[in-house]
Amino acid sequence: MNEFTYSANEIRALFGSGTRKQLSDEIAFLGACRAMVITSSNSRETIKQIIVELGDLCITHFNGAEMHTPIDVTQKALSLAKEHKIDCLVAIGGGSATGLAKAIALRTDLPQIILPTTYAGSELTPIIGETENGLKSTQSSKKVLAETVIYDTDLTVSLPVMQSVTSAINAMAHAVEALYAEHENPIISAHAEQAIITFYNTLPKICVNPQDITARTDALYACFLSGLCLGSVGMALHHKLCHSLGGGFGLPHAATHCVVLPHVIQFNAHVRPELNQLGNRLHSSSLAFAIFELIRACNGPTSLQEIGMKETDLDTAASLAMSNSYYNPRSATYDDIRELLQNAYSGIAPDACLI
Ligand code: NAD
Hints:
The chain is of the alpha/beta class. Helices cover 50% and strands 13% of the residues.
């Protein structure tokens, strides 16, 4: 075994069915009593119930979180938080609600409790991406780490099948990139492999029966592991490409991960053959092909074209991805990125790609 350094973020996590009932206690545990609840605009019945159960602890509710954390939305939520003198943030939702809580915490140091309802995995990472004027910039700061994460399986059951698929592949991407990230280490790699295998086995079950509580529980646990991976060892080419595509061209975040992931794995497997050994454990010739086939079997998106990318924007997208430096185990030229994006645009199977 090679030398390695392992460091972990401090986090308190509750996991299980019905854990949301402990939210009031967790607010008190933080010494807070004036919470602002943050959600995306289409608040669901369960979220309304949680707010009712909070009673006087919920001082205000901002229900306008948006994907890619636009700065103007953050400013509005920040004003509301200041106006109501809130002392804690409670985000209930996917990565968009979590992202907004993080953006406010970055500017105020307010403590956060996150109740994830998708598999995005943002709740465990010190990473925040924000969008302004069509550009998404990402930074890492301990200030945005949540104090408490409440994983309640029941909150994920309503997640529509297609969003479950794309969101799970988004989380799987955190685990995949942990296997070759700059600070990779065997402890996180063990979590990553478990997350990938669990998602691989679980997603088809959720597609058949979205109410399958065992499958939902396994998927949420895999999400937990994936968040730990991204939060501990960071990311590489895949996340960089997805951020450029999402921030620059408004593509849906999780669906973009879904399309791009097999192509980046294929590209990196040339220098990290152990990725394909993991693919063999999934009864496939390569990890790239195993994940591509999984997405196809779950009717998830496999081409950038089908999720709204214009072919005429591919040159700009490749330039955007080249504009910031980032770690990747295989160095990528402009031509490599351009070809990879072309393959992802067309949706060809990764084993048919030449790069
Ligand atoms: P999202 O949070 O935008 O949610 C998508 C839609 O699903 C929303 O309309 C939401 O209301 C709805 N929804 C969420 N949970 C539901 C449920 N259980 N039932 C029914 N509907 C539900 O999407 P997302 O993919 O979770 O998050 C994407 C955002 O997260 C992006 O902005 C991305 O950049 C960010 N992200 C950040 C990190 C990080 O570490 N910083 C990691 C992953 C994703």
